[in-house]
Design a protein that fits this description.
12 helices, mainly alpha, globular, 5 strands, three-stranded mixed β-sheet
Length: 288
């Protein structure tokens, strides 16, 4: 009887202890699950990039012609500043884990967004980006954890590490003769079609290309003169077109975006090449 009583008294003590152990195991399991879910969420956030703020800026202040309402943007710059800060907060290892198209979209968007910032940082607004001292070579921005100038982004990264000459119709230096600034961000999943659309828009504009068959003259944007060598790797060609090797490569590229008649005319090479004057006036919207 005494043994039964002792066992009865001891059992309730053991049972709660066992129950507490089970409770702790369950709690720890829940904590582990929560921690795992949180880590997955963090990984998802850090491995992708959100262009929502930049898209809002472009939709609000850039019109269908690619002209910018800089005065309004200057007065309401918080969203742009927030986005530009986010460009610097991406860790380098995350950036390097992205695909080539993700990196390309990121860098083009960064260049254009930092250019917008450079313009609105001036009070009063300058008539031309060229009136901003050190805008390309000295002024630095945080990008994926590093300090970069606009020239660093264009010449040291985009031109050196990507065989993609179409960047020159996507990078916008805030001038009238530049390609138009899109009122949407470049996105990795559709960047090829966006760049093709940029090429077509630029060549169709008075700042990109003009063919005068009557005068046997083809006028090209000065962009093709400054960066013509970037087309050599993919578009180098002999026995067609005219000019130096880089000019032939540029014309070969351009011809693929023209109608058959214009393409045939360019291929024959019976014309002279001239370069259009570059209008560095600010690509701003004109208010009535």
């Amino acid at each position: 009887m005494k043994r039964l009583l002792i066992a009865f008294l001891i059992f309730p003590i053991i049972f709660p202890l066992a129950s507490c152990a089970n409770t702790n195991d369950v709690g720890q399991g829940n904590q582990n699950n929560v921690a795992l879910e949180n880590s997955e969420n963090i990984a998802t956030v850090t491995n992708t990039f959100d262009y929502q703020d930049y898209e809002k800026v472009l939709k609000t202040y850039v019109n269908s012609q690619g002209l910018v309402d800089y005065k309004k943007l200057q007065a309401n710059r918080n969203t742009l500043d927030k986005f530009n800060q986010s460009l610097g907060s991406i860790p380098p290892d995350i950036y390097h884990s992205w695909s080539e198209t993700e990196q390309l979209a990121f860098l083009i968007n960064a260049y254009n967004s930092f250019t917008l910032q450079s313009i609105i940082d001036q009070k009063p607004l300058k008539k031309s980006i060229r009136n901003i001292p050190g805008v390309w070579k000295i002024r630095k921005f945080k990008l994926a954890g590093e300090s970069k100038t606009l020239d660093n982004i264009e010449h040291d990264i985009l031109r050196k590490k990507f065989n993609e000459p179409r960047i020159h119709v996507a990078l916008v230096c805030a001038a009238i003769s530049c390609p138009p600034l899109r009122n949407e961000p470049y996105l990795s999943e559709k960047i090829d079609s966006q760049l093709e659309d940029q090429v077509n828009k630029f060549l169709a504009s008075p700042h990109g290309l003009r063919i005068e068959k009557n005068n046997n003259r083809v006028y090209l944007s000065s962009i093709f003169k400054w960066f013509g060598e970037d087309w050599l790797t993919t578009y180098s060609i002999e026995n067609k077109f005219t000019g130096k090797n880089k000019e032939k490569a540029v014309l070969n590229f351009i011809s693929k975006h023209l109608n058959p008649s214009e393409r045939e005319y360019l291929e024959k090479g019976q014309y002279k090449i001239s370069y259009l004057d570059y209008d560095w006036s600010l690509n701003k919207q004109i208010r009535n």
